[in-house]
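Troubleshooting log. The previous run stalled partway through. Resubmitting the same two chains, unchanged.
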Amino acid sequence: MNSKYDPKTIEAKWQGRWAEEKTFRAVDFSDKPKYYCLVEFPYPSGDGLHVGHPRSYTALDILARKKRMEGYNVLFPMGFDAFGLPSENYAIKTGIHPSITTKNNIERFKQQLKSLGFSFDWDREFATTDPGYYKWTQWIFIQFYKHGLAYKDKMPINWCTSCKIGLANEEVVDGRCERCGGDVEKRNIEQWMLKITAYADALINDLATVNFLDKIKSQQINWIGRSEGANVQFRIAGHETSLTVFTTRPDTLFGATYMVLSPEHPLVSDLTTEEQKAAVTEYVHTASHKSDLERTELNQEKTGVFTGSYAINPVNGEEIPVWIADYVLINYGTGAIMAVPAHDERDFEFAKKFDLPIRCILRPDREDAQKAGIDMENVINGNVCWPHDGTIINSSNDTGLSIDGKPVKEAIRATIQWLEKQGIGESAVNYKLRDWVFSRQRYWGEPIPMIYCEDCGWSPVPDDELPVVLPEVEKYEPTDTGESPLALIEDWVNTSCPNCQKPAKRETDTMPNWAGSSWYFLRYTDPGNDTAFASVEKLAYWMPVDWYNGGMEHTTLHLLYSRFWNKFLYDCGLVPTSEPYLKRTSHGMVLGEGGEKMSKSRGNVINPDDVVQQYGADVFRVYEMFIGPFDQTAAWDTKGIAGAERFIHRVWKMGTALRIVDDQPLTADQLYILHATIKKVTEDIESLDLNTAISQMMIFINKNSTGQEIPRELIEPFLKLLAPFAPHICEELWARLGHERCIALAPWPEYDETYLVKKSVNIAIQVNGKLRASIEVGIGSEKDGIISKAKANSNVSRHLEGKQILKEIYVPNRLVNFVVR
RNA sequence: GCCGGGGUGGCGGAACUGGUAGACGCGCCGGUCUCAAACACCGGUGGAGGCAACUCCGUGUCGGUUCGAUUCCGACCCUCGGCACCA
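Second attempt completed without errors. Output:
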């Protein structure tokens, strides 16, 4: 029998056997309890896998494998999120159709994934670019449309001048294009929008029902940015119209000394007086040519222009000037604000610059002011801005509003009541979250399945004509007009209206790359279905996902979008649960050697293929899990692999070189280490503390790989524990021990607490909290006996000599502490 | 500025509900094997002092609670992510 450890041979052998026997097939409607274990599917880039992918895949593979051994019917699927810019840009450069690039890249990825021994059910694989898949992405879009949640709107959007596409707010990072870093400017284009804001509250509230990491929950809540306040109407002196503002602080109405409109506000031209017209027009013009970058980065200096009009403050009838300024955003609230410079830092800065009145209507609590190092007088005089809590002052009128002396919260409530009674305002809620710009003027995406008819307007493509397949094009570049290249394919664009049959045109926009991933977890339950996106029965059996792991970079967008789609489908009665994922965790990034981010330009990219080639997949898996806590960033350390390699070699030696003895009862020490290891590994996998699980298995090996022989009853349970981590070597050794069935389906070992109770323990003896000795005593020994034994210890007695013992603290089986003086 | 992680040996990192800090691994030192080296195996390894037994110091900083604090409380520093004129 070959006794040399040869990972290449055994890994290929077992990967082949798993594939042949379909060991990891998830069985629909099995009687076993189901467990749906999900990792984010990759975008199959031309670079292949990097070591970050396997961190998540290995961890959840370990979980999936353990769950299978525990008797669960596990669904652990894999697929490819293949629409997107890199393939399209590659096509623009080379003329090679993205579908070809995609197909090649997927092949490469699959081969890499298989070489790592992941227990995916490959029968359920699909790519978002498969027409059989995107047919349903289109179908779901149509359901959004039919429910009024997809609409077309002309609005200012972010336009990347180099990619020539519209970007969602989320794709603009620091005022620049997320992927190319190019300039972003405003453009008005008709865009398909998805009304995610309709689900804003549900997306916040239902977080209470799921088990996501707290930081993930708070990031979601943060992103949605719910804020409560009031809409308040201001009449304009000499005008019929009135102006509505949103404020979270209606209690500060008496401190409102001017108003500000966003430059894009529809009332700007109406409110501009003849004298101010030139200045305002110029300001609006400059503002529209500022990119978001300029608007956010140049935030030190506030700019603005007076319109010439005055609004009437409803609480005191005062006329206050109306300005326009680009620090007020058109797409938040009503695009207009009341400015309370005494209690809002932005307004304060603006008022200082343009010499507008500042009126304090809120007295800070003395302690708060002191703590902030602020002189109360300066706040009252309006010399210093106080945006915090306090007591309302100078805020009463003769029409029934009197909030003087009230704390902020109470004053807000009272003011809203008063506004409602006067009919000039009501409580209101706003979100930072905007509706989702769902159009891209690009080729490589799902065509939006809509048809426009001069007479009937927009109609969805009828179900029996789905999918709307991407046609061949000659050029992949977006057109100069900003339309997608599809607009140039006349025989594709021109069609007939599904409603009246007259000539009509297809929508040429495609969907964003977030579309396909918004529901892929549903498709895995029934990937071949051609009459529904997934059958009700299969969804009911498999959903929800029990554990979903992915990158922290997806905790706002992808997670929010996919929860939104699922909630919508739930409301349509098409999926069984409102929340798609019971549990969500995130893995830390893998950095390059030396702690720097891995990148081609730094030349520190580690290729998993090379590692597998040199050490084998099992060593790679063990090392990557041992590298550090799963949720934290970790730096790759090539030297560190040696530890994992030695460990695997010792396992091999234990399984091949030592004599396996049957029918030999285990000693107490052997039972202890075995059951301690079972317990630790069993528990640690559940919390993905895989580094400490491995550490415990190393301890086991250190204790058991050095002798001449090893009892079967010791090695077999150990191999089962290690099998999820290093599946190939464990299968091989398991087979060599005479087993015919795979270890992957062998029952998970159980531990017995009774073996973990030690007969004796080491007890620490302290004097005044300092360790002076440690003594071995029988478990559960009497306090008195231990204390006299401790006092008898020379090193202890030395420290007690001449001192008075004030207290003897005894923690059973732990320590004794003498408090002396 | 706001929200959330994280600061423990030369390095990656352990540590249950407050109870012997540094498990496990890397590296390093010494030994066995070898002509030699590598591998493997055995032993050592927080710092300072001491021949030794031992002693003192030590979990970002300062303070507090406690018989006892990496763990709890208060203030602060550094660092990494996310958000950022959202009224």
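Takeaways: The domain at 759-820 of chain A is CATH 3.10.20.590 (Ubiquitin-like (UB roll)). The first strand of chain A starts at residue 34 and ends at 39.
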